[in-house]
Amino acid sequence: MSDISTTTATLLLEDGTFFKGIAAGKIGTTCGEICFNTGMTGYQEIFTDPSYKGQLLVATNAHIGNYGIKNSEVESESIKIAGLICKNFNYDKYSRPMADMSVQEYFEKEDLVGIARVDTRAIVRHIRSKGAMNAIISSEISDLDELKKELAKHPNMDGLELASTVSTKEPYTLGDEEKADFRIAALDFGIKKNILRNFVQRNCFVKVFPAKTSVKELEEFNADGYFLSNGPGDPASMDYAVKTVKELLIIDKPMFGICLGHQLLALSIDIPTYKMHHGHRGINHPVKNLITGKSEITSQNHGFGVSPDAIKANQDRVEITHVNLNDDTIEGISVIGKNAFSVQYHPEASPGPHDASYLFDQFIKMLADTKVEVGATS
Amino acid sequence: MPRDTSIRSVLIIGSGPIIIGQACEFDYSGTQASRSLREEGIEVTLINSNPATIMTDPLTADNIYLRPLTVASLEEILQKHKIDAVLPTMGGQTALNLAIEAAEQGVWEKYNCRMIGVDLDAIELAENRELFRKHTLSLGMGAAPSKIANSFLEGKEAAQEIGFPLVIRPSYTLGGTGGGFVHKEEEFDEALRRGLNASPTHEVLIDKAVLGWKEYELELLRDSNDNVVIICTVENLDPMGIHTGDSITVAPAMTMSDTAYQEMRDQAITLMRSMGNFAGGCNVQFAQNPDTEELIVIEINPRVSRSSALASKATGYPIAKIAAKLALGYYLDELKNQITKTTSAYFEPTLDYVIVKMPRWNFEKFYGADHKLGLQMKSVGEVMAIGRNFLEALQKACQSQENNRNGLGADKKEWIRTSDILDRLEMVSDDRIYRLKDALRLGVPEKTVQKLTRIDPWYISQIKRLVKMEEKILRYNVAEDLTEPFLRELKEVGYSDAQIAWLMRITEKEVTRHRKKLGITRTFKLVDTCAAEFEAQTPYYYSTFDKENESIPSDKKKIVVLGSGPNRIGQGIEFDYCCVHGLMAIKEAGYEAIMINCNPETVSTDFDVADKLYFEPIYWEHIEEILDLEKPEGVIVQLGGQTALKLAEKFKEKGIKIFGTAFEDMDSAEDREFFSDMLKAQDIPYPKYGAAQDTDEALKIANEVTYPVLVRPSYVLGGQRMRIVINDDELERHVLSIFKHMPDNKVLVDQFLERAKEAEIDAICDGEEVMIMGIMEHVEPAGVHSGDSSALLPTYSLSDEVLEKMKAYTKKLAFALNIKGLINIQFAIKDEEVYVIEANPRASRTTPFIAKAYQVPFLNIATLVMIGAKKLKDFKFEKKLEGYAIKVPVFSFDKFPNVDKNLGPEMKSTGEAIRFIKNLQDPFFRELERNRSMYLTR
Questions:
Q1: Which residue in the set B227, B255, B533 is minimally distant from A95, CB to CB?
Q2: Is residue B876 packed enough to be buried (19+ CB in 10 Å), middle (13-18) or exposed (0-12)?
C-alpha cells in the first residue's frame, strides 16, 4: 500500500464549479448532495450515520483517517455517506492500536468513492454562499461534460424520501425484556446505534420498527413510550410518518424525537419544515436550553429545519425549549398539553459532546411519571 | 447574567520579568484582559515590574504601576485607588502567588477588594499533589499510582509497590530540584537518597512514570452559570516524560478518536466543575495509554496558563479576553465570537488546518548545560506554525526557528552515524525530531524508531513520507526535471526551495525560478475559529499551497512590520513591545499596518493589533510571497531585533523600500571594519581591534592590541561565544572552538578595557536632528554583557564632560550612518575617555525601558520619523522621572544547575525588571554598587 494515491479524481458541483484531486477509497463515480461537517473527530461515526444517506461529505478537518477504523465504533452496519471529500486522506499507516483497519481498506471493502487533496476550505466557502447542491465525484471520468451528464441524472434532495431506504426491514429488539424498567417502541427512519445504546444503558427494552409500521402494529408492543428517530431526506415528503405521529399524539404516551423525528413531530402539529441554506453539521453547535437557562455544545446533522415563524404563531400549542445560539434557529420543542418533546440535534452524540445526554434521562423520567400516573388511575 | 455592575474598578497583576516557563504570553493575556475590561467601561489598574510589556503601557490601562510585585506595592495601590476587584489569573503563577500572599495578610479584605476569576480553594486543591490525586480518584478518574515517603525504607516500599519506571519528586523544592525519572531498580537507591536530601522536609513523592503514554492538554472556559467549553485540544508529539513546554505539540489532536476524545472532554469538564466556583480559563493535562486508551489526569491549572496564549493563537479564540468578561459575571452565551462577530462565544472552535508548536532552546547560551530534556522546562521561547497538513506545519515550524535550518533536515546539518542517532532518539534532547528523520533516512525501521522514541506511529510514518520524497528528489539533476505535480507535492508538505536545492545540489534561486514559472505560489487562508462555516471579520492569515487565496489586498497604502521570531536570550519581549507601537504609529499615519511573525506568545500577533496579520515564519521565502501579494509601500525592520534586520539585504535586492535607515548604512554599522574606519574618520575613540580569518592571525592581533582581549565571532546575537582571554593559550583554545562551531565566520579580537565603565545611549534621528532618548550607566564594569548588567537611567557617576562627549559622538555617528529612526550606541569609559564599542541601527533591548521610565512614547515617535510622517521637531514632550530608574536583569539559572552563573560577555539573563529609586542612598542601589566591587576584584 502506498502513502498517497497516484490516481487523479474530479469533483464537479451542479453549478459547474470543479476541483481536481486524487482518488481516495474505491476507484469509481458517485453522486449526492454536497454538505460539510466541521467536526475534528468522529469521521467513522459520520460515515455510518444513516442521516447522511445520499450525501457527499466534505470533512473540513485537515486530516481524515489518522486513527483508522474500529469495527465497533459504527452508527449503522454500513457506510451511509455517498462519497467523501477531504484534504488529507490517510491511505495506509494509522495510529490506533485498537483499530481494525485503515480508512482506505474500509472504503474499498464498502465500495466508497472519495476524493482527497482538494481545497476543502474553498468548497465550504462556496457552499456557504451558494447553498447545498448536488455534486459528483469520479476517479474514472475526468471529462467535465461527461460528468455533467452523469450528475444531471441525479435527483434533487428537495422532496426526496430517503428514510424508508435506510430503515430496518424487520423489527428487532434490544435489551432485557424481563429486567427492563420501560418498554420503548422506536420508529426507525435511519436510527443511529448510539441512541439505542443510550436507551439500553438506562435499562429500557427497545423494539425498533420499520419506518412504515402502522400505529396498530406499534400498539401491540404495548410500549411505555415512543421514540422517533433521526434519518435522511426531506421530512415534508413523509406523509406516512406524519400520519403515524399524529395518531401517536392522540394516544399521548411519552414521545421523544431526535432530528428527523423532531421535524416529524412538528409536522404532525402542522408546523411546516423548510430546507436550510446549507444546514448544520458538526460537533460544536451551541444550543441554549430555555427552560433551565443552561447551554450545551451539541452534535448536529440536519439540512432541514422547523419553521420558527410557524412556531411563534402557534405558541399556544407548542413551546420552544431550545434555540441555536449562532442563528436562533429552533433546536427543541415540546407539545403543550402532550407528553411529547423533540430536539433538532443529537443528544446521543457519537460523534460529539455528551452535554445533551440529559435528554434521555428526561425522557426516562417522563416514562416513569406517566407509568406512575397510569398505575394510580387504574 | 449580565455583568456585575458593582465592579467599576479592577486591578490586574502581571507576571513580572521573563523567566523560563513564564514568558511574554502573560503580557498577551494581561493586555487582552485589560482591553476587555475597559470595553466594559471599567477603570483598569495594572501592576507589573516588567517594563518591556505592552500591558504596562498607557494605551492599555488607566493606572499603571511599574513596581516590584510585593504585597507592599499592592497596598500602595489600594490606598491610592478605590479598587473593587482584583483579577489575579492573568499573570501566571507569580500573580497568583502574590494574590494569595496578600489574601493571607488580609489585604484584600482590608480594602474591601474582591478577588474575581479565581477560587483559592480550587488553587489549593490543584497544587497539593496528594489532595488532588485523591480528588480525581473520588471522581472516578484515573491518577498515576503514587506514594509519599519520609524515609529511605518507606521509599523502598513505595518503589516495590509502584514498580519501575517511576518518578521521584522531592517535596517543597522549586522547579523539580533533586527529582527525576528512575528507570531501573539499580538506580533507585541513589536517586531516592538524593531526593530525600533535596527536600527540606525529607519527603519525596514517588509516582509511577507513565513514560511513553500520549500526552494531551485541554484549554477550557467556564462561566458562573457552569457552562463549559473546550477551546483547544493539544496533542504532544513527544510522549509523557518531557515537560510540555519542551515538547513539540500539535493541534487539533491528530491521533485521537472521537470516543477517546469525548471521554477526555467529559473528564475535563467534570474536573473543572468539581473544583470550587470560579469563572475563567482552565487547563487540564491528561496522559493516555495508547494501547488501552486508559486516561490519567496529570494536572489542572484553574487559571489562564502558559498554553492559553498558544491555544488562542491556534484557534483564533481570545481566551484571556473572554475569561476577563466571564470574571465580571457574564455568561458565555451572552458574548459574541470575537472572530465572526455574529455567532456565539459559547461554542468550541474547529480547525481546518494543523498547528505545530515547537520550542526554541538556547543551550548555546548556557555553556555546560545538560541538553537532555525531562521534567524541567529548558526552552526559552517557542514558535507556532500553521499549515494545511501536519508536515507543512512541522516544516514551517522548523523554518520559524531561526537556527539556520530550512525545514526538517535536508541540509548539511544532517547526521550520518546510525549509532549516534539511535542514542539521541532514546536520550531525548532538543534535536530529537531532526534525528528521528535522520534515522528513517538511514533506513532504521519505523518500528525501531517508534520503540525508542515512543512517538505515535502516525507521526513517524508522516516523517517517513518526507524521506521517501527526498529519495525521489535525488534522482533529478536540474530544476526543470521537477514536474509540476511533484514540485507542488513537495511544497504542500512544507519543503523550502533551499531544501530542494540542497538535495539536488543546485541553487535555491534555480528552484524558485522554476517553481514560479510553473505557477506554484503560496495562497493565504484565514484562521476563523469555525472552518469557514461562518464569515469571519478578522484578518488573521497563514500561507499554504492550496487552490483559493482568501487574502485580498486592500487598495490602501500599506507598511509591513517584521517581528522578531521566537524569544531567545538577548531577543525577547522588548521587540514585541516595539512592534506593537510601530503598528499603532503606522495606523495613526493613515497606512494599513501588516504584521508578520511566528511567535504565539506576543501581543503583536494578536489579531486585534495590526490591520492584517500573517502568522508566518520570519523566513525569506515566506515573506517574499506576502510582499508579492500585498505590494506594500515598504517594510520596517528596525523594530524586530536582529532577526528582522538580517533580512534587510533581501528587501534591498528585491527593491522593497526599507523605511528608516537604508540597508547600506545599517550594514556599515554591523561591518566592524567599515564601522571602525568611520569612527576613525569622525575622530571618535574606539578600542583597538582586528578581524582574523585563522588562529595565527588572531594571535598576531591579540599581541598588537595587548591582552586582555575580547574574542568573538562576527555577526552574532547577545554576545554568543564571546570571551575575555588573557593570554595566547586561552586565545588559541577559544578561537579554535569558534571556528569549530561556526566555520565560515571571522573572529573579532578587541582590546578589552579593564575596569572601564559602560554606558549606552538610545537615540532617534530624522536626518536633521538627533534626539537623545536616554543615557544609561551600567553598574557592573565593562566585560559583563549589557543585557546582564544592572543599569541606571539617567547616569549616576559620569562627569558632565563624559556625558557631553557621548552625546556628541552619538550625533556624529547618527549623521554619519544616515540614521533615520532608532540607534543604540554602547560606550566604554575609562579615565574620562569615551570609547564607542558598538552601534545598533535599530530598536534596542532598552528602548521600551527608557520609554517607560520617562513616560514618553519614543517608539511612536521613532516609527513616525522612520516612515517620514513626522519630523522630530513636531514632537513636544516632557521626560517624567524623579530620581532614577534601574533596569534589573533576571536569570533562570535554577533550570540549568550545571551552568556557570558568573556573568561575562555572553548574555545569560532571560528577562528584566524596572525599579524606581528616589536617590542613590536607596538600599537596593547600594547593594548593587557593593556587588560591582566584587566584579572589579575578580
A1: B255
A2: exposed
CA distance A370 to A214: 23
In this structure, are residues B467 and B224 in contact, taking their beta carbons and an 8 Å threshold?
no
- Write the residue in B225, B226, B531 that is nearest to A38 by C-beta: B531
ipTM confidence score:
0.96
* Cα end-to-end span (Å), chain A: 67
DSSP state of A7: S
Domain that holds residue B13: 9-116
What would the grid cell of residue A304 be? Answer: 432541514
Please give, one letter per residue, the 3-state secondary structure of B253-298. CCCCCHHHHHHHHHHHHHHHHHCCCCCEEEEEEEEECCCCCCEEEE
**Domain-ending residue, one of A152, A178, A206:** A152
As given in the structure block, the three cell numbers for residue A205 are: 427494552
Which of A152, A185, A201 is at the close of a domain?
A152
Residue B139 lies in a domain: no
Residue A135 contacts residue A33 (beta carbons within 8 Å): yes
Based on the domain organization, do B855 and B920 belong to the same domain?
A: yes
Cell for B82?
Answer: 478605590
All three cell numbers of B728 = 595566547
Best of A6, A58, A284 to disrupt the B interface by mutation (most B CBs within 10 Å)? A284
C-beta separation of B391 from B466 below 8 A: yes
pLDDT tens for chain A, 378 residues long, are 467 788 999 999 999 999 999 999 999 999 999 999 999 999 999 999 999 999 999 999 999 999 999 999 999 999 999 999 999 999 988 999 999 999 999 999 999 999 999 999 999 999 999 999 999 999 999 999 999 999 999 998 888 899 999 999 999 999 999 999 999 999 999 999 999 999 999 999 999 999 999 999 999 999 999 999 999 999 999 999 999 999 999 999 999 999 999 999 999 999 999 999 999 999 999 999 999 999 999 999 999 999 999 999 999 999 999 999 999 999 999 999 999 999 999 999 999 999 999 999 999 999 999 987 765 544
- Give the domain CATH number at B846: 3.30.470.20
Domain of A232, in residue numbers: 163-377
Segment (H or E) for B167: strand B166-170
Number of domains in chain B: 7
Residue B138: Cβ-neighbour burial (10 angstroms; 0-12, 13-18, 19+): exposed
Please state, in angstroms and rounded to a whole number, the distance separating the CA atoms of residues B237 and B355: 12
Amino acid at B591: Y
Last residue of a domain, one of B491, B520, B549: B520
| Element of type H or E holding B386 | strand B381-387
- Residues A228 and A368 placed together within one structural domain of the fold: yes
Asked whether residue A62 is domain-assigned, the answer is yes
pTM above 0.90, yes or no: yes
Whether residue B575 sits in one domain with residue B724: no
Look up the CATH number of the domain holding residue A70. 3.50.30.20
Cβ of B354 and A63 within 8 Å? Answer: yes
> Do A179 and A147 share a structural domain?
no
From the list B346, B348, B458, the residue facing A66 with the nearest CB is B458
- A41/B465 Cβ within 8 A: no
User: Is residue B125 assigned to a domain?
Assistant: no
Q: What is the DSSP string of B87-116?
A: E-SSSHHHHHHHHHHHHHTTHHHHTT-EE-
- B910 and B787 in a common domain: yes
List the CATH number of the domain containing B386: 1.10.1030.10
Answer yes or no: are the C-beta atoms of A205 and A173 closer than 8 Å: yes
A373 exposed, middle or buried (CB, 10 Å; 0-12, 13-18, 19+)?
A: exposed
Catalytic residues of A: 259, 346, 348
| Side-chain-side CA neighbours of residue B15 (13 Å) | 27
**From A324, which residue of chain B is nearest by alpha-carbon distance?**
B344
